[in-house]
Amino acid sequence: MSAVPHHVAIVMDGNGRWASRRFLPRIAGHRQGVESLRRCVRLCVERGIAVLTVFAFSSENWNRPAEEVSGLMELLAKALAREVPQLHADGVRLHFAGERRGLSDKVRRGLDEAERATAGNQRLVLNVCFNYGGRWDIAQAAQALAERGEPITEEALNRAMALAHVPDPDLLIRTGGEQRISNFLLWQAAYSELFFSDRLWPDFDAAALDEALACFARRERRFGQTSAQVAAALAPPPARAATAAALASQV
Ligand code: FPP
User: Fold this and answer.
1) Domains in the chain with CATH codes
2) Taking the model in full, what pTM does it have?
3) Under-50 pLDDT residues of the chain
4) 5 C-alpha to center of ligand 1: Å?
5) Per-residue pLDDT tens digits for 124-173
């Protein structure tokens, strides 16, 4: 198993508390959250992570005060306009997962344009889950199969889900001290390692990410197997082991 996760997913929680502690409006916390996301993308590239998936707006976030919802929509539109050129220059491919109906034409156009502009990039895939819910994803995939008259199997569902273009997350981080999944990647996180950080998202810096990565590197991922089976699969093949032993006996 590789010590560095291929795919990291993050619930970026704690923006509101970060702002409240400074007597600022909640949207100031989300603005700082965008800064933290920018830093996190750079760190992921530096650490050799291939896919980063973040939860930016859940299907349930519509229930927040109207002012905060419109603030988040505006923040997304502004972040797209400001960040996409640099993300493109850094080789980041953007992908948006979530229900696009219900978003304004302006936001939808921004998402389409950002995906189109960065489609050829290969350094890091950045999936932004926006107007996304794990239950929505499973239901929309099942609906798509039903409409095509396809049998509903695990493989077919996998192909119809919003993150079909990437393997499942290896590591799922939630910041902000809460320990729950909150309808994020319900299907894809079946075998993800979970890491809960007390840091608020705007404070999630290099040291905090490295702590999560170090913890991940110590985990034993068994995927339903026993420890002994995992150890046997990781052991060198007998021929190589025998050669190594013979070489060792010569010194
Ligand atoms: C949860 O913190 C965070 C969100 C609902 C929004 C996350 C959005 C960002 C980090 C900005 C990036 C987004 C875009 C638009 C690309 P919370 O508000 O629930 O924090 P709290 O638990 O402290 O109240």
Assistant:
1) 7-219 (3.40.1180.10), 225-251 (no CATH)
2) 0.91
3) 243, 246-247, 251
4) 24
5) 999 999 999 999 999 999 999 999 999 999 999 999 999 999 999 999 99
Residues with Cβ within 8 Å of residue 235, at least 6 apart in sequence: 241
Amino acid, res. 235: A
| Tokens of residue 178, six digits | 């809460």
Buried b / exposed e along 122-151 (16+ C-beta atoms within 10 A): eebbbbbbbbbbbebbbebbeeebeeeeee
CB of residue 197 inside a 6 A radius of ligand 1:
no
Q: Please report where in the chains the tokens 């995927």 appear, as a residue.
A: 223
Interval between CA 214 and ligand 1 midpoint (Å): 25
Nearest to 50 by CA among 1, 111, 85, 91: 91
Distances (CA, A) of 98 to 16, 217, 228, 243: 23, 30, 40, 53
What is the distance between the alpha carbons of residues 24 and 29, in angstroms, rounded to a whole number?
8
Measuring CA to CA, which residue among 49, 57, 5, 39 is closest to residue 189? 5
Number of H helices, E strands in the chain: 9, 6
For ligand 1, atom 16, the nearest C-alpha belongs to 76
What is the C-alpha separation between 164 and 139, in angstroms, rounded?
15
